[in-house]
């Protein structure tokens, strides 16, 4: 079942349950999918990789919006964003915790043969592809930088 089909089925369930916040979040996901499918150069449908990027970008936007609303002390709007984020995260792969992330990155560092901070780009290229959707880009970058600056790995 494609992401679009899953979202459409979940929209029907949310409508039957009269769950307006969930319905709004699902409709925004469907809208993103439809926009991506109709972009110039898009093929028949979205690939799994394109779906993952789409959802990751949507989750990042909701997270950043929630932070802004929290800074502005707008708890009502922050809760809406966090609610939509929770729905989007249901479709994303499980996020790695810090320990698992570091373990994966250490493995990548060893495979790539990185020896120090000058190999950051090499490690980030592999890590970004392998850990896509499982960890935030900033978290990956921060952990890689920390591990490469710490020479006893």
Automatic annotation (TrEMBL):
<dbReference type="InterPro" id="IPR019004">
    <property type="entry name" value="YqeY/Aim41"/>
</dbReference>
<protein>
    <submittedName>
        <fullName>GatB/YqeY domain-containing protein</fullName>
    </submittedName>
</protein>
<dbReference type="InterPro" id="IPR042184">
    <property type="entry name" value="YqeY/Aim41_N"/>
</dbReference>
<dbReference type="InterPro" id="IPR003789">
    <property type="entry name" value="Asn/Gln_tRNA_amidoTrase-B-like"/>
</dbReference>
<dbReference type="InterPro" id="IPR023168">
    <property type="entry name" value="GatB_Yqey_C_2"/>
</dbReference>
<dbReference type="Pfam" id="PF09424">
    <property type="entry name" value="YqeY"/>
</dbReference>
